[in-house]
Amino acid sequence: MNEPITYHSQGLYVIIENREIENPTLGYLTRKDTEVKNKTPAPIQITAEQILHEARERQEAEIRPPKQKITDPTELNEYRLCKRKDFEDLIRHVRWNIGIWIKYTQWEES
Fold first, then answer.
1. Where in the cell is it found (predicted)?
2. Looking at the DSSP assignment, which residues form a beta bridge with residue 6?
3. How does pLDDT run across 54-107, given as a tens digit for each residue?
4. CA–CA separation, 86 vs 78, rounded Å?
5. Closest Cα partner for 109 from 91, 94, 87, 93?
6. Which string of DSSP letters, residue by residue, matches the chain?
7. What span, in angstroms and rounded, lies between the C-alpha atoms of 94 and 59?
8. What is the C-alpha separation between 23 and 31, in angstroms, rounded?
9. Contact, 4 vs 16, CB < 8 A?
């Protein structure tokens, strides 16, 4: 009897019993599984440009918060407090991102 074949490839151990040795990096797919079965051209050809155009048409509009008009000092203080909290939460979550620190300091200077 044939013993199972064990070989190592790119950190993966594969045991194959009485079969052809398959490529472990393909997730046990054989060449036959990955071949294109129907090679005839489609009756209607579509370009990449058409695909991108359709994708843009189907996208939903970007939702933006309404612009705020600050009329008195209390609203300004509330806005600044909220903005500081947002920046500090971002910094707490992504402390290593220097870009957030820079944006926060630029905002504080303005």
1. Nucleus
2. 15
3. 988 888 888 888 888 889 999 999 999 999 999 999 999 988 999 999 999 999
4. 12
5. 87
6. -PPPEEEEETTEEEEESSSPPPPGGGTS--HHHHS-S--SPPSS---HHHHHHHHHHHSPPPP-PPPP---SHHHHHHHHHHHHHHHHHHHHH-TT-HHHHHHHHHHHH-
7. 30
8. 9
9. yes
Amino acid identity of residue 45, one-letter, is: Q
Number of residues assigned to the chain: 110
Average pLDDT across the chain, whole number: 78
pLDDT value for 68:
81
Contact (Cβ atoms closer than 8 angstroms) between residue 25 and residue 36: no
The verdict on pTM exceeding 0.90 is no
